[in-house]
């Protein structure tokens, strides 16, 4: 079966500096991945490679059947749902749109509605609002939403395009605990929809039971990649976060505490 994502020996340099160094990992059908690392570790640069916004200096990449250099990257992006703080640049346009229109715009990978909407498409958008418990936002404009509601409506917009791969780049950043858990409830349902997830964060407690595999990245290099239980150890995370830590699991989610005794990391 075709791999969802395959990166082999990826190197990316910018202005003579090596930002990503020898990155190799694969996402197989049925796997749901998280990418963990400190700010500046290379997570966003990795996503820019996967989305085709930056082209590797060396190495090869294939994403949902699209081999870089041999197929259309814009066409590939239509099959990917992407939620990131980079969408903030569309803030002024979003502020004027209702919740329903924002969801609908995901069908066309646009911000704003510029064509007629058929009844079937509208019903799909309304069903998504209902599934995400956002019916109350259907006729309200984006500028009246809470931060948590904004994040959830943008995830709904991404899902409207029925993506094969959903990339969430720090979707809980800046949210309070209740808003964070609302977002994570959505995340936990993604595998049930027969799509694949790439969840990027530096907070391991956001990794719900839906996540099966983890990639750890530090200073542009991979520390470890594999099944969640094998990768989320104190020693590997201490290396990744450059701080001695311990890890424990509760309700299928990992939690991290600082280890006062350096070297006692398991």
UniProtKB/TrEMBL annotation:
<dbReference type="InterPro" id="IPR027417">
    <property type="entry name" value="P-loop_NTPase"/>
</dbReference>
<protein>
    <submittedName>
        <fullName>Putative ABC transporter ATP-binding protein YlmA</fullName>
    </submittedName>
</protein>
<keyword id="KW-0547">Nucleotide-binding</keyword>
<comment type="similarity">
    <text>Belongs to the ABC transporter superfamily.</text>
</comment>
<dbReference type="GO" id="GO:0005524">
    <property type="term" value="F:ATP binding"/>
</dbReference>
<dbReference type="InterPro" id="IPR003593">
    <property type="entry name" value="AAA+_ATPase"/>
</dbReference>
<keyword id="KW-0813">Transport</keyword>
<dbReference type="InterPro" id="IPR050153">
    <property type="entry name" value="Metal_Ion_Import_ABC"/>
</dbReference>
<feature type="domain" description="ABC transporter">
    <location>
        <begin position="5"/>
        <end position="244"/>
    </location>
</feature>
<dbReference type="Pfam" id="PF00005">
    <property type="entry name" value="ABC_tran"/>
</dbReference>
<keyword id="KW-0067">ATP-binding</keyword>
<dbReference type="InterPro" id="IPR017871">
    <property type="entry name" value="ABC_transporter-like_CS"/>
</dbReference>
<dbReference type="GO" id="GO:0016887">
    <property type="term" value="F:ATP hydrolysis activity"/>
</dbReference>
<dbReference type="InterPro" id="IPR003439">
    <property type="entry name" value="ABC_transporter-like_ATP-bd"/>
</dbReference>
């Amino acid at each position: 079966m075709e791999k969802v994502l395959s990166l082999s020996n990826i190197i990316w340099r910018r202005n003579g500096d090596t930002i990503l160094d020898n990155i190799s990992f694969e996402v197989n059908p049925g796997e749901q991945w998280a990418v963990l690392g400190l700010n500046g570790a290379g997570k966003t640069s990795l996503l820019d490679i996967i989305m085709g916004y930056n082209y590797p200096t060396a190495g090869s990449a294939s994403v949902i059947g699209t081999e870089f250099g041999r197929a259309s990257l814009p066409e590939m992006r239509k099959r990917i749902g992407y939620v990131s703080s980079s969408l903030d640049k569309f803030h002024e346009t979003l502020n004027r749109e209702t919740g329903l229109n924002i969801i609908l715009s995901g069908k066309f990978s646009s911000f704003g509605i510029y064509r007629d909407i058929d009844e079937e498409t509208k019903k799909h958008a309304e069903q998504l609002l209902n599934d995400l418990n956002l019916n109350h936002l259907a006729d309200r404009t984006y500028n009246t939403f809470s931060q948590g509601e904004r994040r959830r409506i943008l995830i709904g917009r991404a899902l409207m395009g029925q993506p094969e791969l959903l990339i969430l780049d720090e979707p809980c950043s800046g949210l309070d605990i209740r808003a964070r858990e609302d977002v994570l409830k959505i995340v936990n349902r993604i595998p049930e929809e027969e799509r694949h997830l790439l969840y990027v964060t530096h907070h391991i407690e956001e990794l719900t039971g839906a996540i099966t595999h983890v990639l750890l990245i530090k200073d542009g290099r991979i520390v470890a990649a594999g099944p969640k239980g094998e990768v989320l150890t104190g020693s590997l995370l201490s290396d990744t976060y450059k701080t001695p830590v311990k890890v424990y699991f509760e309700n299928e989610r990992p939690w991290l505490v600082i280890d006062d005794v350096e070297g006692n990391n398991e």
